[in-house]
Amino acid sequence: RDMLAGAVNFLLTNEVARHEMMAAGIATVDEMRGALARTLKSLEPYIQPLVVKARLKGANGR
Q1: CA dist., res. 35 & res. 19, Å (int)
Q2: Which of 17, 40, 20 shows the shortest CA–CA distance to 28?
Q3: Contact (CB, 8 A) for 10 and 17
Q4: Is the pTM of this model over 0.90?
Q5: From CA 9, how far away is CA 14, in angstroms rounded?
Q6: How far is CA 62 from CA 46, 49, 52, 54, 58, in A?
Q7: How far apart are CA 2 and CA 56, in angstroms?
Q8: Angle at the Cα of 23 from the Cα atoms of 22 and 24, rounded to 5 degrees
């Protein structure tokens, strides 16, 4: 708890460090933007056969 309070106090009293941290956070978010879509696209070749298999199994079970 004391470490958190110290870190918050540091950022509140140190404008340069605060802005550097904000810029780094914004850059990281921008860099990761679209990660979910890229991940899903890369998994598509593995997921699609499983979807087809599940649908066929469901149709045969009726």
Answers
A1: 25
A2: 20
A3: yes
A4: no
A5: 8
A6: 26, 20, 16, 13, 7
A7: 58
A8: 90
What are the domain boundaries of the chain?
A: 2-60
Cα 48 from chain centroid? Answer: 23
Please tell me what DSSP assigns to residue 14.
Answer: -
Measure CA 58 to chain center. 33
pLDDT tens figures, 7-48: 999 999 999 999 999 999 999 999 999 999 999 999 999 999
Surface-to-core class of residue 5, CB atoms within 10 Å of its CB (0-12 exposed, 13-18 middle, 19+ buried):
exposed
